[in-house]
TrEMBL record:
It is found in: Plastid, Chloroplast. Residues 239-267 are annotated as: Disordered. GO terms for biological process: cellular response to oxidative stress; hydrogen peroxide catabolic process; response to reactive oxygen species. Pfam families: peroxidase (PF00141). It catalyses: 2 a phenolic donor + H2O2 = 2 a phenolic radical donor + 2 H2O; L-ascorbate + H2O2 = L-dehydroascorbate + 2 H2O. GO terms for molecular function: heme binding; L-ascorbate peroxidase activity; lactoperoxidase activity; metal ion binding. InterPro entries: Ccp1-like, Haem_peroxidase, Haem_peroxidase_sf, Peroxidase_I, Peroxidases_heam-ligand_BS. PANTHER family: L-ASCORBATE PEROXIDASE S, CHLOROPLASTIC_MITOCHONDRIAL, THYLAKOID LUMENAL 29 KDA PROTEIN, CHLOROPLASTIC-RELATED. Its cofactor is heme b. Belongs to the peroxidase family. Ascorbate peroxidase subfamily. Residues 245-261 have a biased composition (Basic and acidic residues). It comes from Perilla frutescens var. hirtella. This is Thylakoidal ascorbate peroxidase.
Length: 421
């Protein structure tokens, strides 16, 4: 075979492979990391890079679902705009000062996220924090009674900030409400993509019932389905330190008590704690004592001190507010991410100086043959390389070993033809 025909054969093989399976370039990239032959070394050869790597600007499907041009540099736009989110946070703080709506905003965030089913992989069928709760069909689910009022409070803020998604706004409002009520700082990330149509709402029945026949096992059924554990169930239940239950909404609680008859906010309902606008550990202290007729204890609240595994945490949180705050903050952040699709995929923090926030945690072994932790510069480089071929490091594209071998043979044939000349 002449060097020309060898080169042509190599190129044809590679091109055919690319046509057969679009992920072939991704497979090549993965192989290159695994075998320590970096994409950069391919790129250093202009001809090879033209054959095996897509060019820096390529037409592909963007994470927003649209088709457009993207570049290897990190995406400049995200599902929500960080500056707008920060302004929205200030507006939420103002809203809280005048409406005292901390509890219902926390409940809104929880009910958007709490539909998540870890056994369903597809988004948005898996449910979770995707803004679906804004649609009437989901607001009408029995468990969501009254939450239309929370949506009405947030809608003017949503209208003001067109580049903030509902999914982010709901979670931002919830975390801000906890923090403004004196609770812990929640390590939140943002960039949640919204569902776009009511047909994408989850079916009714994914949220917990307050009075099931067997409360502890019901809580486990529902929260384990979300991928949460006993500690997280107990910590998250501590959010009932805020707010009230109203018989005309959920059917639970008294129409009013001495703690709620004068508001603040709309009067009435029955609270779990005396100071129901303060985020503290009194929920655990009060349901443990069960002494005050004017304070609410739902069957699912009582289960936290009846079930031996739950009780361990409930006792700890009743005795130690710092322990509660620490576990609550972690569990709340986890809850707020359930089922969410992030753009950029690693999300971003509002409290980080870098525009993209916290970088994702890379597992070195997945991307290099050595087991050492990768340097930040290398992680950035790997991310850019993956994005250039339409993937992300956290979701590597499917590998096809047969095609990988063909590519290696093609490269060898090509290089040999050069050497022979
Ligand atoms: C463990 C299972 C849970 C059950 C059975 C449950 C049930 C309920 C019920 C029946 C209400 C009264 C709603 C009304 O009548 O307006 C309520 C309110 C509330 N829930 Fe839960 N909940 C659970 C978990 C959670 C979690 C995990 C959070 C947050 C992380 C949360 C936050 C709240 C808040 C803040 C309120 C007060 C809302 C207001 O005052 O408007 N709940 N919950």
């Amino acid at each position: 075979m002449t060097s020309l025909s060898a080169a042509a054969a190599a190129a044809t093989t590679a091109a055919a492979a690319s046509r057969l399976l679009p992920s072939v370039t991704a497979s090549a990239a993965r192989l290159s990391y695994r075998s320590s032959v970096s994409i950069s070394s391919l790129r250093s050869s202009p001809l090879l890079s033209r054959i095996f790597l897509p060019q820096k600007s390529s037409l592909r499907r963007l994470s927003t679902g649209r088709i457009g041009y993207s570049t290897v540099s990190p995406p400049k736009c995200a599902a929500s705009d960080p500056d707008q989110l920060k302004s929205a946070r200030e507006d939420i703080k103002e809203l809280l000062k005048t409406k005292f709506c901390h509890p219902i905003l926390v409940r809104l965030g929880w009910h958007d996220a709490g539909t998540y089913n870890k056994n369903i992989e597809e988004w948005p069928q898996r449910g979770g924090a995707n803004g679906s709760l804004r649609f009437e069909v989901e607001l009408k689910h029995g468990a969501n009674a009254g939450l239309v009022n929370a949506l009405k409070l947030l809608q003017p803020i949503k209208d003001k900030y067109s580049n903030v998604t509902y999914a982010d706004l709901f979670q931002l409002a919830s975390a801000t409400a906890v923090e403004e009520a004196g609770g812990p700082k929640i390590p939140m990330k943002y960039g949640r993509v919204d569902v776009t149509a009511p047909e994408q709402c989850p079916e009714e029945g994914r949220l917990p019932d307050a009075g099931p026949p067997s409360p502890a096992s019901h809580l486990r059924d529902v929260f384990y389905r979300m991928g949460l554990n006993d500690k997280e169930i107990v910590a998250l239940s501590g959010a009932h330190t805020l707010g009230r239950s109203r018989p005309d909404r959920s059917g639970w609680g008294k129409p009013e008590t001495k703690y709620t008859k004068d508001g603040p906010g709309a009067p009435g309902g029955q609270s779990w704690t005396v100071q129901w606008l303060k985020f503290d550990n009194f929920y655990f202290k009060d349901i443990k004592e069960k002494k005050d007729e004017d304070l609410l204890v739902l069957p699912t609240d009582a289960a936290l001190f009846d079930d031996p595994s739950f009780k361990e945490y409930a006792e700890k949180y009743a005795a130690d507010q710092d322990a509660f705050f620490k576990d609550y903050a972690e569990a709340h952040a986890k809850l707020s991410n359930l089922g969410a699709k992030f753009d950029p995929p690693e999300g971003f923090s509002l409290d980080d100086s870098s525009p993209k926030g916290q970088p994702e945690k890379f597992v070195a072994a997945k991307y290099s043959t050595g087991k050492r932790e990768l340097s930040d510069a290398m992680k950035q480089k790997i991310r850019a390389e993956y994005e250039a071929i339409g993937g992300t490091p956290d979701k590597p594209l499917q590998s096809n070993y047969f095609l990988n071998i063909i590519i290696v043979i093609a490269v060898l044939a090509f290089v040999t033809s050069f050497v022979m000349n």
